[in-house]
Write a structure and sequence with these properties.
- The protein contains 6 helices and no strands.
- By secondary structure, it is mostly helical.
- α2 packs across α3 and α5 packs across α6.
- It is globular and about 50 Å long.
- The chain starts with a helix and ends with a helix.
Length: about 140
């Protein structure tokens, strides 16, 4: 079932790039990111309340809070850089380079989370890195 959500994530990420490229014409990218963030906040909290997940907020640990906040900071910085890159470059170049995050996540997961780096996963990461280099140079 996870792969269905992963494919939907990829679809929505692709649509994000297209919609953003159209939406940021003549707009400060930081303002565009802020607007996008407000929309995401509304949707995310609506889902939390509809599902009733808000009742579990009190059970979050200090570690949960710390790493969710760090994740939010990383996400925000990623979006700011992504929108600026989209404004300056082509979607067909920016979006694939942005997906270098997949290879970086594989490597960081092995280093920091102790996840096993299989030959298949290592080759996939190397191909992503190679493709990124082809697009950049």
């Amino acid at each position: 079932m996870w792969w269905i959500y992963a494919l939907l994530s990829a679809l929505f990420a692709a649509l994000t790039a297209i919609f953003a490229k159209i939406g940021i014409k003549g707009v400060d990218t930081d303002l565009a990111t802020a607007i996008r963030t407000v929309v995401i906040i509304i949707i995310a909290w609506a889902i939390v309340f509809v599902k009733g997940s808000n009742s579990t907020i009190a059970s979050l640990t200090r570690q949960n809070w710390t790493f969710l906040i760090l994740s939010g900071c990383a996400t925000g910085l990623s979006w700011i850089c992504y929108f600026k890159a989209l404004q300056l470059g082509k979607v067909s170049q920016v979006a694939p380079v942005d997906k270098l995050s997949v290879a970086l996540a594989i490597i960081l997961a092995a280093v920091f989370l102790g996840e096993t780096l299989t030959l298949k996963t290592g080759i996939a990461a190397a191909l992503i890195i190679s493709g990124t280099l082809v697009l950049i140079f």
